[in-house]
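[agent] plan:
  1. take the single chain provided in the ticket
  2. run structure prediction with default settings
  3. attach structure tokens to the ticket
  4. add a short note for the reviewer (M.T.)
[agent] executing step 1
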Amino acid sequence: MNKKTDIKGLTSAETISFIQSLNEKPFRAKQIRQWVFDRGISDFSEMTNLSKTFRERLADTANVTELEEADRKVSSDGSIKFLFRLHDGKTIESVWMPEENRATLCVSTQVGCKLACGFCMTGEGGFERQLSTAEIVDQLIQARKLVPGGRVTNIVFMGMGEPLDNYDNVLQALKVLTEPDCGLMGARKITLSTAGVVPGILLLAKDFSKIKLAVSLNAADDATRNKLMPINKKHPIAELFWALKKWPLPKGRLLTLEYVLIAGINDSDDDAKKLSKLCSDMPVKINLIPYNSASGAQYKSPSKKRVDTFMKIASGRGLIVLPRASRGQDIMAACGQLRGKRS
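[agent] step 2 finished; step 3 output follows
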């Protein structure tokens, strides 16, 4: 049996090619995409401006991925964590984080993760499989159905998995999400966060540098980063920063470095000094994020005083440091927590 074409994984041009292969006029592609992306319809039989014969042919040759909401947790800060069930029964997480001027959706790119970062609960469960392009895109479509007012203004690829370890599907998802015809999301409203997959950074710099890039750094020296993030043994900090210097930044824009502050591990005065020195010649800003302690986690959250001191030292040396609240601590919003609880 031939594999069916998934409409949510196609760009506009690819949809037109698919429709033409069925001997239909190109304008039918736009109609289908409006049903799928604008209205969130996944059943071809409901696409009433298409002929019944064409709808039946579509059902035979194509499908529209639709994630199933398996669970949700609502935080006192307004964040909502969704657990979505995939077609094979596996589950992933997406988190919606509303603020006054924006509402950000954090999406996943893998079921599990290969990188085994010490502070991340996703890695504890190991890696199961890559998400398809359609499964990545559908997190946005489902979230818009489920959140108040359908409001999602920004997307961050910071959920379960390493985006650049699923490069082809993530790149295709970026193309689909930013297609102008359905207006899902502007490229500048999308941030991709990587743990430091250097080959992927270099590829993305050529293929799709319109989005914002963030790097999960979390330590300013190789010894500490090796303990927290095993990928650093393959791509140490010097190699990572060499790759970041090749990212084509528009004038006035900065790369984002995420620094999860962990008590007794990377939060000392000396760590702050090393971080400011490391970044002294880089166009970067630091998002300083206190560690979100999970039940039974081996690491602990730093005190507010320690966070304030760290930020004061690093920023006092000319580094742009922005405090970032850890959202949804009362609903297990850290990656992998809700999925891990149910597995």
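[agent] step 4 note for reviewer: The CA atoms of residues 42 and 64 lie 5 Å apart.
[agent] ticket updated
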